[in-house]
Structure of GGDEF domain-containing protein:
Amino acid sequence: MMQGSYEMLLSDIAVLLAGNQFDTEAVSKSLKLICDSFSFTYGAVYEADNSEHFNLMENVTLNQTALRQRFSVKELTTEQCSYLTKKTVSYITRNEHNTLCETKLLTMFAASSLVIAPITDESFCIYGLIVFFDTASEEKRREAVQETLSVMLPMLVRYIGVRMYRYMLSRSQASLENILDNTGIDIYVNDFYTHDILYVNRSMAEPYGGQGQFLGRKCWEVLFPGQNGPCDFCPEKYLIDDQGEPTRVYTWDYQRPFDGSWFRVFSAAFQWVDGRLAHVVSSADITDNKEKEALIQYMANYDSLTNLPNRRMLVNDCKKRIDLASDTEKGYLLFFDIDGFKNVNDNFGHDAGDELLIALGKFFSGIPLLKDSIYRNGGDEFVAIIGGESITKENIQNLTRFILARFRKPWILKAGSIHCNTSIGVACFPEDGCTAEELLRKADMSMYQVKKSGGGGVCFGYQLL
């Protein structure tokens, strides 16, 4: 795979795992993408259950050989667990230098090569495995491949880890207090109707002065001093059906006001020990995960080379602008294609091509009219969205004249002076289209008419032959 393919794969995985829907389809599609991209024979996710067995959850296989459906947690020895938890991702290929631990791991999965990412709790106890392996021998994977997997697999580990925690919560009610007091998860329980606090664990109580500050009081009295009733955002209405019976776990994110920490909160209704309906609220500190999620969202919506928003964000932003446009508002979509860009790559190399794209991104985004409105559509294509009551066709004509004048001057790169031009297609909203797709198509057609005429010019949608 080329570097661009790695970045595209990372972006595809980031898109699949973005958001808060922790479903098996996203995991299966991610396994399939990774297997296809790196020629793995198998990809599998194993999760531990309460009976101390690892069970096969999602899997992708490229032949008819059956995967192990279940194996005991005890099959992973202390030495093997220590080996796996020392690294985020482990790479093992069968050879004469294998340690006994590595040989046993290869034998466990009947594989000639393995890539394993453990899913662990705060005590580095393994409760899940993401495994990719081959049955045929192969050379050790290149460093670039390992580097890509070392970024990609932790995304999948975090995604599956949060999903597993949600499952764990529903399975652990019988021993809730003991488990959560020793895993660092914040939890409290209150009467569903009176909101009197029935239980709070140590980690939840400590920032508020200890468990004595909770018991016998209303939840809002402790969490939001000065408040006189239940919180407006309390999710209790989602937790029971019309007959007052518990329904499902409800998940939401909350930022603690006095220190800014973020928590993923899980709420559920259940029968308390005395038979009354209770509301259990548990939360895990996801301040670090929020930063990771922001990174995933960035990778899904921004081009890694130029740091400009990508086509996905272009389409979404264009749809939003159209939805919010007034009846009298005009909008323009400008499509820029760089003339002769292939010659730059052929004559000066791809590094020079990348350097030029970065320079073009800075040039476009440095124009006041295009600031926060320029996107990299892909390859050597850039797109701008300009709108507003004060924007006129004359504004756009002046802008394109300025841009074309700049392109008649050389671009100074490390490899030397490079000359290239740009073909510009312009679509007008609403005359040339009322959807993002229609405007992009009209601007693209206009740009190609300039190309066919020799490039280095501009064509508006109404000028199409």
About this structure: The mean pLDDT is 87. The CA atoms of residues 425 and 444 lie 6 Å apart. The first strand starts at residue 42 and ends at 48.
